[in-house]
Give the backbone structure.
Amino acid sequence: MIISIISSIIIWSAVLVLILRIIYKSGVVIPNNKYTAVLLSDKPLGQNYSSTTTKELLAVFALAFAFRVLVFILSLCTIYMFNDNIHNVNDILDQYMKWDANNYIRIATGGYTYHTENGNFTTLAFFPLYPWLIKLFSFIFRDLRISAMILSFILYSASCVFLYKLFTIDYNKNTAVRAIVYMSVFPHALFFGTMMNESMLLFTSAATLYYIRKHKWQLASIFGALAALSRMAGILLAVPAAIEWLEEYRILEKLKNKQFKSVWELFYRKGLWIFLMLTGTGIYLFCNYKITGDWLKFLEYQNTIWNNGSCYFGKGIALIFNNAFSNDFSNKFALWIPEAASILFVVIMLIYGLRRNRNMYSAFLVVYIIINTGFKWPISVARYMTCAIPAFLFLSDFSERHKWTEPVITAVMAIGLGIYLTGYLTWKQIL
């Protein structure tokens, strides 16, 4: 109960501060006193750094892809060290066929109707974009598992390119590179090189945030729709899009001044594109309806089959911390302690970055935390936080101001990555 209350106070306080800041940035004058001054004033933030070059972007992609290959090679060492029954490529690929990977491969093999359990189309709980692309890649690579791995490598590398372009809009290039490094060596970043859709969500989210920041609303809406077709959390990208639209065009100020025609033009020429993001979720819901006759069938499956129904985020966070500090050691270090650590990390970064960064980033992070901790059995929160993009940007911004922390943070995260990669490949409960 105490953890739920504390987390609720922190998160809802952040939401309140964000609302005030968004209102202020959108053109509404808020009474200036010692309290509002603290909330509304911005910490120094660099702007208008030099643009990126094609050579730089190619280098980012190549280095990111090389990093994933290196991690895969290290993974092979782990596989051979802890398993005496590895004889060929199929045996190696089988080590990655675990947890959700099985369901993505099932969808890629024959769609949502390919696999059933007691008459239930259980794979409907998983979003379709990643397995659809796996199927497409299989026409080239002739094997769904190989296609899934290569696809994850490519999507991760392309994500790094978009993140580099995004971060260098408002930060220096060292900060941008460091943020990508932190994200890449985050202990559960191992999933960027597996048959899971983390790289898919990361790519679509990075591209969407980039085009939001550049105010290219059509492209932002297209990639936002793809993000919503990757995972339910993808639709949250509509939040930073709406906030950036409000602030960039000072919509509330125009409404206050009764410039309704100007607001209407900004809405149907620019803001209306944000609603296109909903089409990704709509396609997924239509898949549910076409197969079962129920638009929301996936919610039933998540609750009854996957034991993953929704709840208040404070309750989900409390459950994680209670399990992390319990006397049950069965999954404590594999599952619950990294879950608790990841929540602490993103919440601390949210508090740190609230006044120092653009509101679109903080808003995305706070809603991302709320949605991804609101489960009755939150066993994959640490994995989900690999795509909490603003948290790594805020951490890099912190390191820019405290240089001594950079090697410490990198080393600690890299050690964690090695530990949990080993655990994942030896079939521990790394979910």
Remarks:
- Residues 185 and 414 are 5 Å apart (CA to CA).
- The mean pLDDT is 91.
- Residues 54-82 form the longest helix (29 residues).
